[in-house]
């Protein structure tokens, strides 16, 4: 058989380790038709991939789906062929990948797999759409167990693991376990041995559900492709681990959607690129000493260019600015006001730089079209934007800077209860302070069907306009000389559901009267030495991919629900990276998240103990 290197696979298709293991396993078996479970067994026997967790079959299927999606994006032949037998779907390498050697192809078994194979096939996963009955307080449905409380249950589970390992990957029983509204989170000791070895493998299954079906909420989407989620810890960043805060973790899950047609089954279709971008850095003074710790998160929309630009440029710009400040003087209100002005100007300059670059891209594109110089390899410019949230730990001060609808919340433990101490305010169209400016600068408020919403141009006494609760923003007049597109192929105007962003040239064509601004909200809080708090306070910063998928759509309830969820897991001594991975797995917790959604946005969570 040909070698793996000789197959017609592009470099982009060879990046996924599990997918590579599947190809090598099929080559080892002379490209015979194999089911997902057969691939799991042989991958393990050949030691080609470490398939941990309770759903290795789903990991294999997810890697195959990702490989097919990548091929569609690259516009090349699909690398895997499928055959639906009576006992399940079988896979083999597409013959188009092999060298044009008739002897090699002739040696393969071209017949479809027999349908009379004696095996107990798994039942197909069914994505339930029935919504469970809501209760008065969802955050009270959690039960977290500490290390001492879970010792007995852990020992029971470990005894049954070996005997039930073959059944854990497939549903061989017609009877489903009864769903319980208790989520049990075990202590750090349960996860330590496996998590350390798993951290370097971004495509290995990272199952946050626990053993014992009668004790946990079962994931109603059994084929959860956890390879879409990656986690990071302090040791993964170039920071000083002796200066706080040093206890933090990051999880990021690329967005995905479900196939819209019945014949495509329950397949997840991940996005080509994650549009979220983050940066965690130590900012240094002119003499090279530690100055500040930066946590920066940008949630892109329309593309990943703006978010990547922001997280790349901000660290050095902030470093230069902060060298002019002494954190001990931030008690002075005048110093804080000067700080706010400098930060606002810094973000405005970055926004202008990106918009100027986009204007130049569109001018060049228009010029090439006029002179018929557009080559087939040229790519039309993309008008994208991003929200931005920056959190600084500057001496004894915590400083939050927010543009858009990514969110920061600080939770603290008071009288044995986890409460929300601070949360940033999402910049949404319904905010009175933003709506007036949007309207006066040429913005129109529309609903999800692009129908205009009546707007009273006179100032209101309330901070929120109720009729704009689900409003989007588009332009009154969008024709422009740059050729920036303002309608999609169906003639629907492009619109945004966020009222402050960086980038988004379409909404800032007139620099003197931008429909949407990039002016940030800035918050100061003096924390004191980090050793005072002993882990009883945390900060979470997240893109809207977390909060938009919660059951509640009210920010206050969302914040309290998340604060309780995180706080109780901290009390149970769960690892931070397990907590953020749990938050990003929005189909793994049916108490927190909606379970009837067709699409899931990119999600990034950064959790910091303060």
UniProtKB/TrEMBL annotation:
Ranges for region Disordered? 106-216
Domain annotation PPM-type phosphatase: ranges: 255-610
Q: Which Gene3D superfamilies match?
A: PPM-type phosphatase domain (3.60.40.10)
MF term (GO), any: protein serine/threonine phosphatase activity
Q: Where is the composition biased (Acidic residues)?
A: 146-174
Protein name in UniProt? PPM-type phosphatase domain-containing protein
């Amino acid at each position: 058989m040909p070698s793996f290197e000789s197959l017609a696979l592009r470099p982009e298709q060879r990046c996924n380790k599990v997918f590579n293991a599947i190809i090598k396993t099929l080559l080892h078996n002379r490209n015979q038709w194999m089911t997902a479970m057969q691939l799991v067994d042989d991958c393990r026997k050949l030691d080609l991939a470490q398939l941990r967790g309770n759903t290795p079959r789903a990991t294999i299927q997810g890697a195959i789906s990702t490989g097919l999606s990548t091929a569609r994006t690259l516009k090349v032949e699909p690398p895997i062929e499928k055959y639906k037998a009576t006992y399940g779907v079988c896979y083999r390498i597409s013959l188009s990948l092999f060298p044009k050697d008739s002897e090699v192809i002739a040696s393969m078994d071209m017949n479809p797999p027999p349908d009379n194979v004696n095996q107990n096939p798994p039942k197909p996963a069914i994505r339930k759409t029935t919504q469970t009955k809501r209760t008065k307080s969802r955050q009270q449905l959690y039960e977290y167990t500490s290390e001492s409380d879970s010792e007995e249950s852990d020992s029971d589970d470990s005894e049954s693991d070996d005997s039930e390992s073959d059944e854990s990957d497939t549903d061989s029983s017609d009877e489903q376990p009864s769903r319980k509204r208790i989520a049990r989170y075990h202590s750090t000791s349960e996860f330590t041995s496996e998590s350390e070895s798993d951290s370097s493998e971004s495509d290995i299954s990272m199952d946050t559900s626990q053993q014992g079906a009668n004790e946990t909420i079962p994931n109603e989407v059994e084929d959860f492709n956890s390879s879409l989620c990656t986690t990071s810890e302090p040791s993964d960043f170039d920071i000083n681990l002796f200066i706080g805060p040093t206890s933090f973790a990051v999880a990021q899950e690329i967005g995905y959607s479900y196939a819209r047609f019945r014949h495509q089954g329950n397949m997840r279709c991940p996005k080509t690129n994650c549009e979220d971008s983050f940066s965690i850095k130590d900012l240094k003074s002119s003499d090279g000493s530690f100055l500040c710790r930066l946590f920066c998160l940008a949630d892109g929309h329309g593309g990943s260019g703006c978010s990547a630009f922001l997280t790349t440029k901000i660290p050095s710009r902030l470093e230069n600015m902060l060298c002019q400040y002494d954190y001990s003087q931030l008690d002075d209100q005048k110093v804080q006001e000067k700080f706010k002005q400098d930060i606002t100007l810094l973000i405005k300059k970055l926004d202008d730089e990106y918009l100027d670059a986009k204007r130049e891209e569109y001018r060049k594109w228009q010029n090439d079209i006029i002179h018929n110089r557009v080559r087939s390899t040229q790519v039309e410019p993309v008008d994208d934007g991003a929200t931005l949230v920056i959190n600084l730990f500057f001496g004894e001060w915590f400083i939050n800077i927010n543009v858009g609808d990514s969110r920061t919340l600080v939770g603290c433990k008071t009288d044995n209860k986890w409460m929300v101490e601070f949360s940033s305010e999402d910049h949404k169209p319904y905010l009175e302070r933003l709506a007036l400016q949007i309207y006066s600068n040429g913005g129109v408020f529309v609903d999800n069907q692009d129908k205009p919403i009546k707007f009273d141009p006179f100032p209101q006494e309330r901070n929120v306009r109720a009729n704009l609760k689900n409003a989007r923003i588009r332009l009154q007049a969008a024709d422009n000389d740059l050729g920036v597109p303002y309608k999609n192929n169906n003639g629907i105007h492009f619109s945004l559901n966020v009222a402050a962003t960086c980038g988004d040239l379409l909404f800032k064509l007139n620099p003197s009267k931008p429909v949407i601004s990039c002016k940030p909200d800035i918050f100061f809080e003096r924390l004191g030495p980090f050793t005072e708090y002993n882990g009883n306070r945390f900060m979470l910063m997240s893109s809207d991919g977390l909060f938009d998928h919660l059951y509640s759509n009210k920010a206050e309830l969302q914040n309290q629900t998340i604060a309780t969820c995180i706080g109780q897991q901290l009390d149970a001594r769960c690892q931070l990276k397990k907590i953020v991975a749990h938050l990003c797995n929005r189909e793994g917790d049916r108490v927190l998240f909606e379970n009837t959604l067709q699409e899931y946005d990119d999600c990034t969570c950064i959790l910091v103990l303060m």
